[in-house]
Design goal:
The structure is a homodimer of 395-residue chains. Chain A is of the alpha/beta class and 395 residues long. Chain A has 18 helices and 14 strands. The first copy, chain A, has 2 domains: 10-206 and 329-391, Crotonobetainyl-coa:carnitine coa-transferase, domain 1 (Rossmann fold, 3-Layer(aba) Sandwich); 234-318, formyl-coa transferase, domain 3 (2-Layer Sandwich), CATH 3.30.1540. Chain A has helices at residues 19-29, 57-63, 76-88, 100-103, 108-114, 139-145, 148-151, 166-189, 199-206, 209-217, 251-261, 276-281, 283-294, 299-308, 319-323, 326-331, 372-378, 383-391, and strands spanning 10-13, 33-38, 51-52, 55-56, 67-70, 91-94, 119-124, 194-198, 234-239, 242-247, 313-315, 334-339, 343-348, 352-354.
Chain lengths: 395, 395
Amino acid sequence: MDKKALQGVVVLDLTKVLAGPYCGSILADFGADVIKIEPQKGEDGRYYGPYLNGESLYFGNLNRGKRDITLNLKSEEGKEIFKKLVMKADMVIENFRPGVMDRLGLGYEDLKKINPRIIYGAISGFGKGSPYEKLGGYDIISQAMGGQMSVTGQENDPPTRSGNAIGDVLGGMNLALGLLVALQARNVTGEGQYVDVALVDSVAASLEQAWQRYFVSGKLPIRHGNYYDAIAPYDSYMASDGYLVIGCGNQALFEVFCRELLHREDLITDPRFLDVPLRVKNNKEFKVIVEEWLSDKTVDEAVDMLRAARIPSGPIWDLKQLSESEHAKARGMFVEVEHPVAGTMKLNASPIKLSDTPAKVRTAPPVLGADNEVILKDLGYSEEEIAELKEKKVI
Amino acid sequence: MDKKALQGVVVLDLTKVLAGPYCGSILADFGADVIKIEPQKGEDGRYYGPYLNGESLYFGNLNRGKRDITLNLKSEEGKEIFKKLVMKADMVIENFRPGVMDRLGLGYEDLKKINPRIIYGAISGFGKGSPYEKLGGYDIISQAMGGQMSVTGQENDPPTRSGNAIGDVLGGMNLALGLLVALQARNVTGEGQYVDVALVDSVAASLEQAWQRYFVSGKLPIRHGNYYDAIAPYDSYMASDGYLVIGCGNQALFEVFCRELLHREDLITDPRFLDVPLRVKNNKEFKVIVEEWLSDKTVDEAVDMLRAARIPSGPIWDLKQLSESEHAKARGMFVEVEHPVAGTMKLNASPIKLSDTPAKVRTAPPVLGADNEVILKDLGYSEEEIAELKEKKVI
């Protein structure tokens, strides 16, 4: 039997592009009934590549497992249908700028009058109460203003964004966390609440110790390639045919590395490398020693030696290497679904593995308005009324 | 009244360094009783700077709001105490390599016999079943093998890590998501389950559309600085005194940008820029036009103009600029707590804002073993027995 952790949880997903849809897809993977509500032209994500037979896989990966209706929320009939859906729902998620839903008469204060148990999740660039709350905020803006670009990059690089939309991903995950926490709270209080996540805040929180380092020292972290301010040796290193990474997170690992691999027991008592903060400070000097050791070894040879000695290390993989690896197969990292228009879509499986109620890509991403009829009939609309709604461009 | 969303949820936190502790801190911020269990020498994170009066703020930020006991899990008495705690707990989280807890006789199969409701969260570099499961995996290894480093960096850069420990942060958040999903499932099934998260998988999932792009085209994404493969114009741009970012995520925004700011209505119908995929393809040509427009404007001037026209954009902030901003104040992004040894610690507030049961840094991070006595007395140990446990180095 297909046991669903979020069986019976109904989510109305008004979101577009990445952060909100990613949140919705997490809930859908765990079995919530996520109803995506789109404007008639489709949300922006449907206009982004890559495409497969004209269907966006950008949209596809983020909206698998959802049902889909089109709805004009500016029309009176559209608002009425939305409110009927809210009466039966557990969660609403949206990523408009703060205030947009209020002006439509569909903000949290309006919706909780209809359904006090509703959990309302809002995600935006800057969040409620920010002086910038009225401004749109995409991922790149959150990486720019959230501090990410100031710390990412090689030594002489300009500010560099993380090569993925990490602000959106973090924001979507934070929203899902907030919704699940609110669901747990509702089991006790019986009431929903408002969950508010900003992309900028999500990026900033992910910078972890960089903040404390700055607050204590007053010194700004700089872009410095691949070493880490908190641990060393912990960096990328050049071998004879490319780069690999090594991380020694504690004294024991450092000593094994020096003794068994570098054959330099003297380094253990070298005053430059006595403890973690000293090794961070003198990271470059140690790196020279490591790269000298690596100069006659390939990445594969070195990683084999390091792993045999239980030193955390690894090659630097591209998407081909990872997706074709035994690791990817063993972990079920990718999954194929059949889409009615696009054909076979290869999507990312959930990275969250549960033993009893596993995540699953339950259905292919929906074509626009795929479930208009079923959902409206469930609300009691007749075929004639549905045809009229279509005619009037409500759906 | 201080309403706690996770009131009554007891979490035993055996984790160290970043991913696991970050997960525990999310649960603690929402009011779970998180009991950190450390070896007598303290977990590795206590050995990482920055320091304040000898106390690690690296540890501090990730372990606020937790209680703390020391426990030697290799001793029989230590195992017994741990099992007594498990009987009363809802969750156990650990980030040993898969198999370590089993060999101690404290794996999920052992613990569920004692408490079938226990939710067991494991986080490791590679996860259960991976050919690499026995290998240690720090953040940098997950960024290397998870694909992050292959896509991050400027055009001629070597593989570049995200400037924060993003693999650990994503992993910790995924674990928290899995635990909360399992908690919801337990409300229905009455039973706990095993939650398994790998850092490598967490990083890979965060690369979003890069996977679908590769699967469809067979072409590997390359490092290319700050533009995005899915949207354009969406990049960093040089103004007269520095860089700013601009993101036009849909046709309407693009047209406003051309018409009202660039005063180049012709670009809207220019065949190079007709839709999103074409604009991505010809991003560099459009960038020249934007940077020419910016050449006589400062970052602040340009951002003001862009914002006035509602074009998503922003400056690139460092940690000083963000932490001193009105945004940070309005959103309560940082919080100070008094620590008995370190004094005033400035920590990151939760980026997840709930209206009814808000997250909160409830207490300062614990000194090592701070709650040994209270917790052992709660389990029924007398003062004499506690003294003996200390003597025998069990606690």
